[in-house]
Amino acid sequence: MVNILLSLWTFAEPYIKNEMEKYIKPSNKVAIISLGQNDWYNDRNRYNAKYGLEGKHYLLPVSEFEKLGINRKNIELVHYFEDNPEDMKRKINSSDIIMFTGGMPDKAMVRFKEKDICEDIISFDKVIMGYSAGAILQLNSNFLSPDDDYPELMYTNGLSYISNDFYIEVHYSKEDNWRKLLGEIRNERNKPIYAIGDYGAVIIDECRNIKIFGDVTII
Predict the structure, then answer these.
(1) pTM of structure
(2) Measured between alpha carbons, how far is 20 from 35 in angstroms, rounded to an integer?
(3) Other CB atoms closer than 10 Å to residue 22's CB: what's the count?
(4) Backbone angles phi, psi at 15, to 5 degrees
(5) Half-sphere exposure of 73 toward its Cβ, with a 13 Å CA cutoff?
(6) Superfamily assignment of 2-218 in CATH?
(7) Are 196 and 136 in contact (CB under 8 A)?
């Protein structure tokens, strides 16, 4: 199993492209899983506009996979409204790569259970990618920094692909006033934090070695 943690879908950019070509091959099949929407997007039309086949959470990662040689016909979307659980299971289990998109990680975990695909996701042991919320939910647990979706600092449980030896922060910018908060979390929980910028990545390879690329700050 390989875990790829990103802030954005920028995984074919120069800072990471050579490394990604080790894990992503033109013959691969991909399942993009977009179930982390906030409740406002539980309307079918709103969901489609952002997470559906014409939405950015599908089109932008697809464009990156295409840059790495994967044909669009080999990329399937796990769609909250259009797919029944059996469709979702088929797409996941027939893939070489799964990509979790952004949104809210705690909402995604609820919907995995709602759609009865938790077991299929947890047992997947090939290449697992995710950006923003899709990175956070790969860990055993992680904090969620205050933002528009989370008014206060909170902690959430994830899929436990990755042991709880560290936390991550996504969309990190050295210009933001988050370093003090991250330092407090690091000291309270006694775990290092990999703060991933929009052009950064953390990869846990098959041997469970941690590799960092681009804009990543270790706190």
Answers:
(1) 0.94
(2) 24
(3) 11
(4) -65, -20
(5) 1
(6) Class I glutamine amidotransferase (GATase) domain (3.40.50.880)
(7) no
